[in-house]
Amino acid sequence: MVKSIAVFILGALIGGLIVWKAPALGKAQTVSPATPDSSKAAAPSLNDDVTRLKTITPTLSHVMADVAFQYSNLWFAGQKKNWPLAMFYFNETRGRIRWMLRINPTPKTPEGEIVNAQGIWDSIEPSTMEALKKTIESKDSQAFAPAYKAMLEQCYTCHKSAGRPYLRPMVPTVVPQTIINYDPDAKWPQ
After folding, report:
1. Exposure on the CB side of residue 131, measured as CA atoms within 13 A
2. Which residues contact 84 (CB under 8 A, 6 or more apart)?
3. Which residues contact 49 (CB under 8 A, 6 or more apart)?
4. Both ends of the chain: CA-CA distance in Å?
5. What is the set of domains in the chain, with CATH numbers?
6. Is 151 exposed, middle or buried (0-12, 13-18, 19+ CB in 10 A)?
7. pLDDT digits (tens, 9 = 90+) for 89-105
8. 48-70 pLDDT per residue, tens
9. Residue 13 in this model has a pLDDT that exceeds 80
10. Quick check: bond before 189 cis, omega within 30?
11. Residue 128 · residue 154 · CB < 8 Å
């Protein structure tokens, strides 16, 4: 009974405080208008920030090295039939490609021609990439290698479109991630 009364009194106090302060909370905040000098001061700072961000944004080659790392791991996870790990690396690969497109959806060839990388991806993702995803989801080890290789062919098509035909992807031969066990039946700790 005493506990109920204490809760009632506490609730009444909090409610009273809210009602008492509510008119002040509903009042509009006033902001002083910007002076001509203050808007000029903000512009160089914004330009400086944009310039700095352009210098710290990773290059597409950096992002693509990360794509290659994730995609190579996908190969070995699929070969070991570790389908949850394969799906993880599939999603990591796709995420890195999307990151690359956020950085620059229209890169230039070495000759300066603009490449619609976003357009290329928009045709690859629902077709070849989706087919690879389905082989992983269905745990189809027979279809995995052909689907993986088909995606590599699409990668090469994009490289050629970007004016870099010398970047020829291939099925990896060496495990890139030596700290991860690809065996789906591996026990922990080892």
Report:
1. 15
2. 184
3. none
4. 59
5. 54-161 (1.20.120)
6. buried
7. 999 999 999 999 999 99
8. 888 888 888 888 889 999 999 99
9. no
10. yes
11. yes
